[in-house]
Amino acid sequence: MCDWQEMAVRLADVFPRRRLHPRALDWIESASKDGAWHIACSGGADSVCLILLLYAHFPERRAGMRVLHFNHRLRGSESDRDAAWVKEMAGALALAA
């Protein structure tokens, strides 16, 4: 079983906040502090990385983070496993899914 919180911390060490694109940081910092963040996650490396970096770098926003996964059902039971895996990861981070 993966310790997703530890993984987020380790990833943030590799990609500190200062390495994020300035336009992305400007947008994040100008966004409403009260609004929810709806983060799409396919279960692939890029979207998982995004969730982990947002989780690590913006702890004050965790309560409003929502992980969204759309199961296209294109690969049968594999698609179902992707959906379950994303939900499990979000749950381990205590994020709504």
Question: Can you offer a commentary on this structure?
Answer:
By secondary structure, the protein is mainly α. Helix content is 51%, strand content 8%. The protein has helices at 4-14, 22-30, 45-57, 77-92, and strands spanning 37-40, 65-68. Strands 1-2 form a two-stranded parallel ribbon. Helix 3 links the parallel strand 1 (37-40) and strand 2 (65-68). The chain is globular. The chain starts with a helix and ends in a 5-residue tail after the last helix. The model has no long low-confidence stretch (mean pLDDT 92).
Search tags:
97 residues, mainly alpha, two-stranded parallel sheet, 2 strands, 8% strand
Which helices and strands occur, and which strands form pairs?
Layout: H1 4-14, H2 22-30, E1 37-40, H3 45-57, E2 65-68, H4 77-92
Parallel strand pairs: 1-2
Biggest beta sheet attributes: 2 strands, parallel
Structure classification: mainly alpha
What distance separates the N and C termini?
19 Å
- Share in helix: 40-55%
Strand order in space, largest sheet? 1-2
What form results from the Cα inertia axes? Answer: globular
Rg, Å, rounded? 14 Å
Note the run of SSEs as H and E. Answer: HHEHEH
Quaternary structure state of the chains depicted = single chain
Which strand-content bin applies to the residues?
5-15%
Instruction: Give the strand tally.
Output: 2
Average pLDDT taken over every residue? 92
Low-confidence runs (pLDDT<50, min 5 residues)? none
Count of helix runs = 4
